[in-house]
Structures are given as structure tokens and as C-alpha cells.
Amino acid sequence: MSIIVFGSINIDLVATAPRLPVAGETLLGEDFFKIPGGKGANQAVALARLGIPTQMVGRVGADSFGAELVSNLQAAGVRTDNIFVDETVSSGVAIITVGSAGENQIIVIPGANRRVNQEDVERLSHLLPTATALLLQLEIPIAAVVAAAKAAQDANITVILDPAPAQSNLPDELYPLVDIITPNEVEAGQLVGFVVDGEKSAAKATEILLQRGVKSAIVKLGTKGVVCATAEETFFVPAFPVHAVDTVAAGDAFNGGLAAALFTGLSLNQAVIWGAAAGALAATKLGAQTSLPDKLTFDAFLKERGVGQIERRGDAGMGRRGE
Q: Of 49, 54, 46, 52, which Cα lies nearest the Cα of 6?
């Protein structure tokens, strides 16, 4: 059995400079970095590094970036058989300029990610009989996200949605297809229409998300912790204190840790703890995929912080819906 990630695959081209250039100006920069990214690919790598059998479904262009992105996923242990190479468009690219004060300018070219469609959903559907969960994000067309969630529900597969980038107009039909939704506080605010900035407002947001049809709602509050609610309970998990260097992939690491715990048979409460731990670890290093922890580092982090043996839901790991 495996977990499937259906989503975006990008390359980040990052230039650093003393300051950001103004319109029409040529400015000498300092450093350049080429970093694999995309929320879908990030979450696939997060899972694979934690030892979870992972398959990625998405698109890249028929260019050198596409080949590099697929190779990078393979090196992390992700199955890439169902990544389609689209010869009509470039791979997804983010062009990022960062000034010395930390300010940035970003241009995102979705490229092949924008072309993800029903053909990709059909490739995904062929994998569902051997999967326990499907991870989704919002960097591919929303119609493909809804279709993939519907296919997973029909196959009795757990659907985990990271509603990022933030959107305020998710289709009503998507919510009942989702088992677990994992917005951060900004994304939660966009979804429910009011500011989410602490435990109380996060709990209110989870109530609304449950009313819309999701089975479990998790709101990530960064250093303020995590609120999780189901129809039966609402609970809070404090954040793991770390020295944060770069939080760019913390949300993706959270979803990887959460899904990894459920795959190995842990309770939802413990899965949220795993998610918080993976997110904290990712924040201690620069970059997206370069910051995602491996299993050895992750296990040591949990042990050092006294997270010991925990309740399991059974030997079968993450069950299908209703199991």
C-alpha cells in the first residue's frame, strides 16, 4: 500500500541581492539557488523521507527542469511512473528575488501544472486500489482537485486537503469529499471569512469547516500550536519550540508528518503531533525540499521531546473510509 500525492511540481529559481531592483534597473546580485519545489512535490518528498511508500501524480514540461524535478523526486524515494511529461508547455517555475532585509518579489509561471486535467485524474484512479490516502493542494486547477477527491471517495480512500494557496471560494461540493482539511491561520481565515489568529478563533473556524462537510478540520497556528476538531472532539496541540530559519515548507512537512502517522496506524491526535514535529523541524533549515526531515532525524526529534510509544488504531495502518 502507498500514499498518493496529486499536485504541483515546480522549480524555484532564487536570486539574492542587496535590495530589490526598481523598474528598469539592472542590479548586481549576490547568490543564486535552484531549488525543487511545488506543494505537491514537497509533500511527496516529506512522506518518502519519513519512510512511507509514496507515488506522485502530476505534470512537468519536456525541458531540463522537468527532467531534474522528476530525478529529484526519484532520489527522495518517490515513485514517478505517473508524472506526465507535457511537450506543449514549460515546467512550473517560480522566479524569486530576495533582498538583504528579507523582502522578496516572486513571479510564478504554473506551466505544466496549469494543464493538469481529467487525463491525470484517470492515471490517479488506476493507483487507488493500492492506496490508503490521497493528498491534495490547490496549485493545480480546482476542477482536477475536485475530480480527484471524488475518485478517491468512490474508492473509499482517505482524502487530505491542504487548501493552499489560500482561496475564499472553494466549491461547496469539495468539502464533503474531504476527510481532513489542514489550512494555516491565513488560509482558514480566507475559507471562513473572518480573522483566525489564535486558539479560540481557530476552534470557531473548525466548526464552520465541519458544518460544510469535512470529517476533520485542522488549523495550523504556527508557533501558537494546532487546533483539530472532529464531530466527536476538539483538541489543541502546542507547537514544538525551535529556532526558525525558514518556514517556507513547514506546512508541507506538517501534512507529510500527519499522513505518515495515520499510515502507520496512529490516532488522529498523535498524527497532529507528528505533523507539528515535522513542521517544526522543516522550519530550522533553509529551502523547501532541502528542509524536509528524514526518518532518523524525525525519530530522534520526537524522542528528545518525550514523545514516546503511542496508541495505535490497529495493525493495518491508515484504513479506508469506514474501516
A: 54
Residue type, 72: N
- Which of 283, 276, 287 shows the shortest CA–CA distance to 247? 283
List C-alpha distances in Å: 133 to 19, 67, 112, 196: 44, 27, 24, 28
Residue 317, Ramachandran bin (φ over 0: left; ψ between -120 and 50: alpha; else beta): left
- Print burial letters for 302-316: b (CB count within 10 Å at least 16), e (below 16): beeeebeeeeebeee
DSSP bridge partners of 32: 15
Count of other CB atoms within 10 angstroms of residue 220: 28
139 contacts: CB under 8 Å, gap ≥ 6: 7, 8, 10, 38, 39, 40, 92, 110, 113, 164, 165
Instruction: Summarize pLDDT for 77-134 with one digit per residue, the tens.
Output: 999 999 999 999 999 998 988 888 778 788 889 999 999 999 999 999 999 999 999 9
pTM: 0.91
Catalytic residue flag (residue 252): yes
**C-alpha distance from residue 8 to each of 277, 296, 321 (Å):** 24, 27, 26
- Does the pLDDT at position 259 exceed 70? yes
What element of type H or E holds 296? helix 295-304
Q: How many residues does the chain have?
A: 323
CA distance between the termini of the chain: 15
Q: Please give the grid coordinates belonging to residue 197.
A: 489568529
**Cβ pair 133, 263 in contact under 8 A:** yes
Output the nine-digit C-alpha cell for 228. Answer: 483539530
Give the active site residue among 252, 294, 299, 315.
252
**Please, what is the angle between helix 64-75 and helix 39-49, to 10°?**
20
Give the Cα separation of 45 and 2 in Å (integer).
13
